[in-house]
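Record 1 of the preview.
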Amino acid sequence: LAVHVTSALFVLSDISVGSWHMLAPLFALSLVLGWLYERHERLSLPIFVHMGFNALNITLTLLIAAAGPGS
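->
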């Protein structure tokens, strides 16, 4: 239950930052990060998964921007 509540609070804190279409993936990511921490009792694993998620989003954003408008 704690992971679900924390995940919901995490998503609610990001509403003003991102678009509405990102709320479900962020909630899923937060659930996975919480589960990883609970399962392995190590903070490093969720941190690396979060870094990978951010790196993927930055890469996709740069690729879309490089393609230019209308591509």
